[in-house]
Amino acid sequence: xxxxxxxxxxxxxxxxxxxxxxxxxxxxxxxxxxxxxxxxxxxxxxxxxxxxxxxxxxxxxxxxxxxxxxxxxxxxxxxxxxxxxxxxxxxxxxxxxxxxxxxxxxxxxxxxxxxxxxxxxxxxxxxxxxxxxxxxxxxxxxxxxxxxxxxxxxxxxxxxxxxxxxxxxxxxxxxxxxxxxxxxxxxxxxxxxxxxxxxxxxxxxxxxxxxxxxxxxxxxxxxxxxxxxxxxxxxxxxxxxxxxxxxxxxxxxxxxxxxxxxxxxxxxxxxxxxxxxxxxxxxxxxxxxxxxxxxxxxxxxxxxxxxxxxxxxxxxxxxxxxxxxxxxxxxxxxxxxxxxxxxxxxxxxxxxxxxxxxxxxxxxxxxxxxxxxxxxxxxxxxxxxxxxxxxxxxxxxxxxxxxxxxxxxxxxxxxxxxxxxxxxxxxxxxxxxxxxxxxxxxxxxxxxxxxxxxxxxxxxxxxxxxxxxxxxxxxxxxxxxxxxxxxxxxxxxxxxxxxxxxxxxxxxxxxxxxxxxxxxxxxxxxxxxxxxxxxxxxxxxxxxxxxxxxxxxxxxxxxxxxxxxxxxxxxxxxxxxxxxxxxxxxxxxxxxxxxxxxxxxxxxxxxxxxxxxxxxxxxxxxxxxxxxxxxxxxxxxxxxxxxxxxxxxxxxxxxx
Length: 656
Fold this sequence. Notes:
By secondary structure, the chain is mainly beta. 9% of the residues lie in helices and 38% in strands. The strands form ten sheets. Strands 1, 2, 3, 5, 6, 11, 12, 15, 17, 18, 20, 23 and 24 form a 13-stranded mixed sheet that branches. Strands 14-13-16-19 form a four-stranded antiparallel sheet, with no helix packed on it. The protein has a four-stranded antiparallel sheet with strand order 25-26-27-28, with no helix packed on it. The protein starts with 13 loop residues before the first helix and ends with a strand. The model is unreliable at 1-20 (pLDDT under 50).
C-alpha cells in the first residue's frame, strides 16, 4: 500500500473540461445599469443640466467603452414627456451586436425612521427587457400612480417583462441628508423571486457585501447586507426570493455611466466616496434579450470598477454550474468541486476567497502575478451540505485609487487599494437520501441502502432486493454514511462520519453503536480492505488527496496519497477480484482506476457510463469483482456488470 499512489499517469482532460465547462458557452460583457441623466430631479440641482439620456448612452458606448447600459433616472418627479423620450432614445441607441441599451428607471423609497410602521422600503432599479413592453409612466414611491412599498411596486409591474435590483441595501443616510430621519437601506422582509433576481453589491456609495467588508457603505447595517439576505435562503422555508445574483453599478449622477477610471473627476462626494462599480454578465450574444436573460438568470458578477475577468463554476455530481446556477443536493458523500479562473485588468490577481454561507471557506494568495496572467483555483468542498451557497471574491493587487471621505466631506484623496470582483453564488438545494452499497447480509452479494438523517433503509440481495426495512441507528442529518466490514465477520458495518469523527454500528455486537473515533482527517469517507487482512480500513478523500487508516497499523491515519482526476468523485471497491480494494475516480461518465493487481498503477479512462448521476461500485453479480454503477437524480440505479463484460443493466428502482 505504501506504493499505492506512487504512479500517477498524466491524464489530459482538456477535451472533457471544455465539453463540460458551462462557462465556455458564454462571453463576458461589461455594462452599467444604474446611472442617471439630467432627467433625474437631483442631477440639475448639482449643476449637471445638459446631460440627457441620449448623450449619456453615447458616453457609455464611445467613452466608457461599455457593451450595454441602462439610464435609470428617478421615477419620482420625472416629467411624462421625458419618459417618452427615454424610451425613444433606447430604441434609437440600441445597436446590437455592437451596443445594447436597456430601458429602466429608479424607484427611490427611503425609510422614514420616525415611522415605526415603515415597511417594504429600499431603492431599486427597474430594468425592462424591451422599451416596447413598458408602462406609460415610471412608477414612483410617492405622488400620482405611486407604489408605497415593494409589494405595490411589483403589483404595478405585473404583466411587464422586467426585473428589480436593490442597491446600497446596507446603507443608512448620506451625510448631506438628515441622518435622524432617513434610511436608504433595503427591507429584506420583502422579496419576490419572479421580479427580483439580483442585488447591487457595489456602487459609488460603497460596498454592501457583509459586516467587516472593504469599502463599506456609510452607516453600514449588517442585517441589511447582501450576505444577510443570501443567508435567509439557507433557513426554512428556503424562500427563493433570497437567491440573489450579484451586480455592480455606478449610480452616476453626471450623465457619464461607466465613468469608473480612478481619477478625481470621477468622484462626486455628494453621490458617494467612490467612482462606482461595473456589472459583468455572461451572455450568449450582445443583444437586449441575451443581456436581460443573463441578469435574470444570475449569470453576473460585480466589480469595484476594474474589468477583472472571472469564471466561477461548480461541479456537483453530474451538474455543471456556472455562477447563478442551482443543483439539488444529491448525496452527503458527494463533493462540490469549485473552479475559478481570473485575470486582472490594471494589476495581477493577488488573492481569491471562497465563501460558503457567509463564512470564509478557503483563501489562496498569489505573488509575482501580472495583469497578463490568468490564475486558476480548484477547490473541493468535501463537506458539501444541502442549503448551501458558494461565491468567490477575487482581489487585484493594490493600485492607485481615488476616494472621497463623505463622512467628513474632505477633498478627494488617493490611496493604494485592491480592486475586487464579486461573483454571483451557486446554490446546493434540498436533500436526498444517500446511497450506500455493501454486503450487509453476508451472501457475498452487495446490498443497496439509502441513508438519511440517522435512518438506514435496506434492499437486501438475500431478499431479492425487495424493501427489507428501515433501521434508525442514528448519526444525524449532518453525518456522511459509508459501510464496510470493520470487525471481520463478513457482514458490513454501517458508519456515519461527522467531520473527523467516525461512529460505527458493529454487526458482531448486534449493531450497537461505538465511538465516535476521531481519525483526525475530514473529507469524503470511504472504506475498504487496502492491506489484505480482511478487515476494512477507513479512508478519507479531501483536497489534499487520499488518507488511509490501516487496520494493520492500529488505524493510524497515513497519507496523503496524491492521485486525483480533476472534478473526479472518489470510489473505493475491489475491481480486480483479489479481495483488496482499488481506488477509483469517476468524472463525466469516465472511470479511472488504480488496481492492486497492477501495483496500483493508473488505468483508464473507461467510458462506461452514458447515464448522468452519482457513482457507486460493489459486487452485485457474485463474481468477486465490483460492478461500476450510477444512481441518477430520480434515484434509479444503473449497473455495469463485470460478469457480462460490463454491459449495462437497469434502471433499477428501489421500491418500498
